[in-house]
């Protein structure tokens, strides 16, 4: 089988990075070059922010790295698996088994309880739930008393916490977070970012977070700054002031 239901047996090699892009380019219809020869390696357990202004290519980078889109050229590997040449069905299976997603708009199913939303990826994959793991996730995101509620009965921060638990439930190789704090107030956003940091540090979960906000990107261990479809800077242990200054310098203001 190409995949295994046991996450501990998944890696092709113990040293394989969570994500590896090698000279990836992506050109959309009409000749729009969204990614221009991008190479990027994300190691397991790394919390990486991809930052840049609108149109810099950060969303296309995420879509390519997550096997949501097929790049025009180059190689994308997820947990050591080469995504080149896979059918749409195989790419869907790969995402199901190896990738978790957290979106700005939460994307919870309104008619399902919080509990059913969290375990939905397992049911779709036909995998038995690990009760102890789910209980630990629910406790970590602080939703133990909200499992039978519907999403509409939760605050925005609680909905995003449920989405994070859903993204983690299948023990993915990587979680992609697309502007995960964009719909939250400042205090709640900080809580969600703290949760991401804890998940990376305590659970060794790889997280790739896309954002335009330097203050959000600064919560990651590493930030890459994009412009015109390329990674132009890589910053270790970034600060909000440093990242903001880099964006201003790039804009020529």
From TrEMBL:
Q: Work out whether the entry's keyword set contains Nucleotide-binding.
A: yes
Sorted alphabetically, which SUPFAM superfamilies does this protein's record hold? P-loop containing nucleoside triphosphate hydrolases
Keywords, A to Z?
A: ATP-binding, Nucleotide-binding, Transport
Keyword Nucleotide-binding recorded:
yes
Residues in domain ABC transporter?
A: 19-253
- CDD domains, A to Z: ABC_MJ0796_LolCDE_FtsE
InterPro entries per record:
AAA+_ATPase, ABC_transporter-like_ATP-bd, ABC_transporter-like_CS, ABC_transpr_LolD-like, MacB-like_ATP-bd, P-loop_NTPase
Superkingdom as given in the UniProt entry: Bacteria
Q: What is the name of this protein? A: ABC transporter ATP-binding protein
